[in-house]
């Protein structure tokens, strides 16, 4: 019996070593620092190895649907940046957990439950992509270099491996989803899935479509529509808009640098908008808290430095402006806490300080436009949901409308209000 036991221990240790070396690990998280008691949702964290010799270790948070995990759809959610952690969407946007930003006292933030989480109806994987984002890391220096096309393939490989480790979800309806710069990767990953399925690669993925929120599709369209949008919402005058429209020949992005009249027209517009919060024009732009540039590259539209160094925040606590980025600061307190990283089963020594948005990635933007991907999926009849915020100057809804029109689709329903509980909640 002693020999059998010793052999089993050796075998078990070998299996664990192979599992780690294969870059795959997963753990159920039942409790989290900041939340009192057992979590009311099923949270799993883990790593999936991709790339040569699994040198790239992509970290993820997976939360089961609070409705019926066996039949509800599975979403792979990709944040923007590139370089913004999946934790950001989990706690600030669509996940079931949120930080208590009201009663924060500078210590470990408390965790609250979000009543309108997307996990009420879906299983969601939040991924830290590309490598170097959040808790994702590489075992080699070269592994930290990434591109749009490499990320799409890595995320596809990640998803295949994840489903092999979670065979109970292979037949669930699958949607790829994401926002901001992640919106560019969404149709690219969907295309990898489509090609993999057509080639008979295993496991077959039950792709139904994809979702893009305020995402990047084609810079020539998305960036160019910022000027018409600024005019439409009265940020610039008719005169400024007409001057730019004529002198730039409606090409506000990558315009001729020798065109002095266009440059001067755009400079006047830039002076009108450079103190605004690009992501939400009604929210304050705060010194040191609002990063520059935004992940859509505002400098692709205007040539001037979009600086806010002269803006000052009120000194008294009562008069201070509310800033969304102050809420983001809570994630740094939480995710860098050793007890939190232990609870999340983070591999020690794999990253330095955790950041919500890593702006120092070695990343090449090598896919200019993904408009052709949208056309292919539309022609094949996949379900696609595209949505935008109407106060977003970085990713304007006008850019989205323009590239959708370029697809020459048949319109089934005209522009109309979308109601929730008897109130207009948006327009479709």
From TrEMBL:
Cleavable signal peptide: 1-25
Q: Which Pfam families match?
A: Peptidase_S10
Family from the record:
Belongs to the peptidase S10 family.
GO biological process per UniProt: proteolysis; secondary metabolic process
| Top-rank lineage group of the source organism | Eukaryota
Any idea what this protein is called? Serine carboxypeptidase-like 18
Which UniProt keyword terms apply here?
Carboxypeptidase, Hydrolase, Protease, Signal
- Single GO MF descriptor: acyltransferase activity, transferring groups other than amino-acyl groups
Q: Which residues cross the membrane?
A: none
Could you tell me which Gene3D superfamilies the record lists for this protein? alpha/beta hydrolase
């Amino acid at each position: 019996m002693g020999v059998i036991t010793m052999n089993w221990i050796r075998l078990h240790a070998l299996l664990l070593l192979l599992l780690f070396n294969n870059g795959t690990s997963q753990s159920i998280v039942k409790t989290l620092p900041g939340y009192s008691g057992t979590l009311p949702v099923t949270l799993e964290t883990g790593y999936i190895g991709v790339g040569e010799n699994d040198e790239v270790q992509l970290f993820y948070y997976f939360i089961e649907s609070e409705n019926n995990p066996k039949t509800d759809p599975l979403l792979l959610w990709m944040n923007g940046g590139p370089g913004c952690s999946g934790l950001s969407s989990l706690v600030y946007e669509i996940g079931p957990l949120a930080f208590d930003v009201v009663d924060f006292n500078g210590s470990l933030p408390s965790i609250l439950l979000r009543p309108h989480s997307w996990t009420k109806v879906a299983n969601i994987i939040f991924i830290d992509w590309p490598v170097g984002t959040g808790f994702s890391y590489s075992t080699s220096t070269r592994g930290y270099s990434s591109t749009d096309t490499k990320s799409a393939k890595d995320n596809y490989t990640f998803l295949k491996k994840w489903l092999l480790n979670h065979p109970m979800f292979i037949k669930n309806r699958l949607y790829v989803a994401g926002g901001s710069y992640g919106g560019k990767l969404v149709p690219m990953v969907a295309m990898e899935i489509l090609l993999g399925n057509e080639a008979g690669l295993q496991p077959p993925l039950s792709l139904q479509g994809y979702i893009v929120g305020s995402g990047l599709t084609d810079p020539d369209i998305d960036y160019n529509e910022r000027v018409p949008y600024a005019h439409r919402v009265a940020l610039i005058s008719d005169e400024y808009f007409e001057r730019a429209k004529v002198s730039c020949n409606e090409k506000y992005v990558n315009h001729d640098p020798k065109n002095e009249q266009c440059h001067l027209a755009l400079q006047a517009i830039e002076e009108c908008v450079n103190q605004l919060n690009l992501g939400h024009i009604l929210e304050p732009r705060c010194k040191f808290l609002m990063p520059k540039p935004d992940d859509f590259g505002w400098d692709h539209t205007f040539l001037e430095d979009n600086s806010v160094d002269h803006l000052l925040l009120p000194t008294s606590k009562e008069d201070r402006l509310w800033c969304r980025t102050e809420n983001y600061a809570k994630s740094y307190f939480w995710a860098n806490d050793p007890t939190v990283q232990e609870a999340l089963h983070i591999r020690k020594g794999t990253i330095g300080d955790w950041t919500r948005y890593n702006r120092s990635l070695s990343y090449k933007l090598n896919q200019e436009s993904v408009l052709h991907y949208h056309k292919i999926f539309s022609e094949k009849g996949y379900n696609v949901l595209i949505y935008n915020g109407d106060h977003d100057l970085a990713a304007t809804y006008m850019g989205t409308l323009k590239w959708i029109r370029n697809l020459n689709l048949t319109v089934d329903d005209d522009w109309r209000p979308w109601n929730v509980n008897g109130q207009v909640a948006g327009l479709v």
